Amino acid sequence: MDLRSLRYFTEVASRGGFARATGSAHASQPTLSKAIAQLEDELGTRLLDRDRRGVRLTQAGEIVHRHALAMLARTEHLRAELDALQNLHRGELRLGLPPLGSSVLFAPLLARFREQHPQIDIHLLEHGSRRLEQSVLAGELEIAATLRPVGEGLDCQPVCDEPMLALLPQSHPRARARRFRMEWLGESPLILFEEGFALNRLIRDACAGHGVAPRETVHSAQVDFILALVAAGGGIALLPRLTVEERSLSGVVAVPLSGRDLRWQMVLAWRRGAELSPAARAWLALVADTTPDL
After folding, report:
1. 28: number of Cβ within 10 Å
2. S-S: 179 plus which of 2, 16, 111, 258, CB 3.0-4.6 Å?
3. From CA 4, how far away is CA 26, in angstroms rounded?
4. Residue 9 contacts by C-beta under 8 Å, 6 or more apart in sequence?
């Protein structure tokens, strides 16, 4: 049985006749008669008694009429919920953001998204980029911020492309250089982020490309702690310019890297071929509006 036949049946029953139901059902009398006859054949029982005064429900018809009204009501609720979802009056955004750079890049955008779509629930997971990519592939997140190159099975949209800086103690022999060469990374201990941060892999790959085997020392997830370690002479660090521009660099010198083989390219990634929710599509559109040239 289909919903249209059930709707025709309820209209005929409520109006008390086929001719009276044509207007509200938006169907001709023969169409109504055929649809209800097919419904009776499918159910194997008569649903309406017909006489000169019109129609009335049989006992079987009363049961079908009650269930039909409930089914049609549920269908209307379903359509209303889908309409609310499509028009962003309800729904959720399952988003993953890494600790590095999110406060600068995404905090203002999340505030704007919340202002534009106050009905959307935002479920936020903060972790290293590689862990976030795994969560996207597993279906736990719809979208996550990560670095290029993204993992297998993901599509992405660019967010920003930032140069990297070498952070050195003021007393470091290379502190007065105009550009810091990757080959110099073998001269001092290297401070990296905790494992799971995509930037670690990019730094190690760039070092390998220059034939450098860095002496890794402390691993931390906190930019301020890394800068404090650098200032105290605990090693050097490589960070994207965006993450250190507004921080105090007391005791630290920031030197741009030479070349372009190591850059911080942030993207938003989602599972390839996935049907993104309206909330996720709205988030991507908002970010794209702020990064039109990338």
Report:
1. 12
2. 258
3. 11
4. 35, 36, 39, 47, 64, 65, 68
Q: Quote the pTM value.
A: 0.72
Structure tokens at 270: 């989602």
- Residue 292 banded pLDDT, cuts 50, 70, 90: low
230 neighbors 166 (Cβ within 8 angstroms): no
What would the pLDDT profile of 174-183 be if each residue is shown by its tens digit? 999 999 999 9
Give the Cα separation of 230 and 166 in Å (integer).
10
Asked if residues 123 and 280 have their Cβ atoms less than 8 Å apart, the reply is no
- Contact partners, residue 158, CB within 8 Å, separation at least 6: 265, 266, 267, 291, 294
Give 11-69 pLDDT, tens digit per residue: 888 888 888 888 888 889 888 889 889 988 988 999 898 887 888 899 998 999 999 88
The predicted-structure confidence for 252-275, as pLDDT tens digits, reads as follows 999 999 988 899 999 999 999 988
Give tens-digit pLDDT for 79-123. 767 766 777 777 888 999 998 889 889 999 999 999 988 888 899
Query: Looking at residue 61, what DSSP letter applies?
Result: H
Question: Cα separation of 132 and 97, whole Å?
Answer: 8
d(Cα 260, Cα 50) in Å, to the nearest integer?
84
Q: Is 21 exposed, middle or buried (0-12, 13-18, 19+ CB in 10 A)?
A: buried
Give the Cα separation of 192 and 216 in Å (integer): 7
Closest by Cα among 136, 180, 176 to 274:
136
Query: What's the rounded Cα separation, in Å, for the pair 54 and 51?
Result: 5
Query: What residues have CB less than 8 Å from 8, skipping those under 6 apart?
Result: 21, 25, 27, 31, 32, 35, 36
Residue with tokens 């911020």: 145
